[in-house]
């Protein structure tokens, strides 16, 4: 499989595990390392797999299933690292119309591509300049 | 120079150019490609160097200098790709106390490491679960 395809496939497994509330699937998506980082929208960045895993445990256990409509999906790869820039359009009952801008970074391991960074942020309705 | 050091150096040039309002410096930090992406806090993701460059032109021209106190700086690298997870603490007169969670991705080119993705998001005072 070409790197770009493999990165897209790994990216798809991330959202599939999220939608299915599949903790084991989510765990297998991620690189279990100290350098793993995850920034959920509005959160401080969680650093290290233990903290990242705990956040998904909480999120996936909260009961309300999320559905993602992914748009503007732009994969890229250089060597053993790939990344996907995309928009997550959340289709949950309480979240109609919410768009999250996301960047997902993956690293190739012998057993496949693993997510090492996820950064999501809500897109504000009114845009203001900021750093 | 070790990759981690080189990535940190490139990361430092990004914030140095921002603080100095140095458009040429900012331009030289970035990979000028279609895959370049930039998500300023609350913004939609800008994709492609032309859009990214236009945003920095607007931000750096707006006159109010920004100062960044960088904390939780965590660099990593695999092969020709490196990334830095960090907190940007903004010290401008109107921005006291604002913390931006950021992820910066760099790719090694013959002429040095170039930023290919920047994603920043404001850390909310009250954290709520989100994807």
How is this structure best described in words?
Two copies of one chain form a homodimer. By secondary structure, chain A is an alpha+beta fold. Chain A has a single domain, classed as Nuclear Transport Factor 2, Chain: A. Chain A is built from three helices and six strands, in the order ααββαββββ. In chain A, strands 2-1-6-5-4-3 form a six-stranded mixed sheet. In chain A, a hairpin with a 7-residue loop joins β4 and β5. Chain A starts with a helix and ends in a 9-residue tail after the last strand. The relative contact order of chain A is 0.21. The model of chain A has no long low-confidence stretch (mean pLDDT 92). At the A-B interface, α3, β3, β4, β5 and β6 of A face α3, β3, β4, β5 and β6 of B.
Nearest-angstrom radius of gyration of chain A? 14 Å
State the helical fraction of chain A: 25-40%
If you average the pLDDT of chain A, what whole number results? 92
Distance between the termini of chain A: 37 Å
The quaternary structure here is homodimer
Can you count the beta strands of chain A?
6
Tell me what the CATH architecture of chain A is. Answer: Roll
Low-confidence stretches of chain A: none
Q: How many DSSP helices of chain A?
A: 3
Greatest contact between two chains: A-B, 48 and 48 residues
Largest sheet of chain A: 6 strands, mixed
Provide the succession of SSEs of chain A.
HHEEHEEEE
Class per helix and strand makeup of chain A: alpha+beta
Strand content of chain A: 35-45%
The top level CATH class name of chain A:
Alpha Beta
CATH topology of chain A: Nuclear Transport Factor 2, Chain: A
What's the number of domains of chain A? 1
Instruction: Give the overall shape of chain A, derived from the CA principal axes.
Output: globular
Order of the strands making up the biggest sheet of chain A: 2-1-6-5-4-3
